[in-house]
Amino acid sequence: LKTYLVLGELYQQEKEYQKAIEMYKKAFQRSPESWYAANNLAFLLCEFSDSKKDIYRALNLAEKTQRLHPNETIIMDTLGWIHYKLRNYDQSLQLLRKSLAQNPENSITNYHLGAVLYQIGKMNEAKIHLKRAIKSNENFICKEEAAELFERLS
């Protein structure tokens, strides 16, 4: 299990997302109780697949994972982002706000919340969260998109 998780993380860092997905799939198949593997698999399926089937698979996986670990902020973020991709903005907003309340400096959650706020027309609040996301030293997936969205609002 650990080998697949480490390989998944390495592929993710190298932006080889399809390979990362395969590693997280293998990790999850070996250990279905691994919330970390399930969460990362759900996030990458949602982020890097154009298939509605994969997004709904990600949703199913994230919902099951959240039921088992309801207070895990990373899972709330993933589930919130999946709802964003499905245009369920109210559910997305609720999950992302809850995640951020517990971990206010999380860069990717700030980006995700900023994107949702942008979609629902709350531009000033969106700018605050996007700025937090892009000003961090953390190099997260979609940091460029966060910067582009922030620029659009400035």
Report the β-strand fraction as a percent range.
Answer: under 5%
Contiguous low-pLDDT stretches (5 residues minimum) are none
Class by helix and strand content?
A: mainly alpha
What radius of gyration results from the CA coordinates? 15 Å
| Number of H- or I-type helical stretches | 9
Biggest sheet layout: none
Helix content bin: over 70%
| Helix and strand element order | HHHHHHHHH
Account of the protein in words:
The chain has helices at residues 2-13, 17-30, 35-47, 52-68, 73-85, 89-102, 107-119, 123-135, 143-153. The protein has 154 residues and is mainly α. The longest helix is centred in the middle third of the chain and has 17 residues, at 52-68. The mean pLDDT is 96.
List the defining traits of the structure above:
mainly alpha, 9 helices
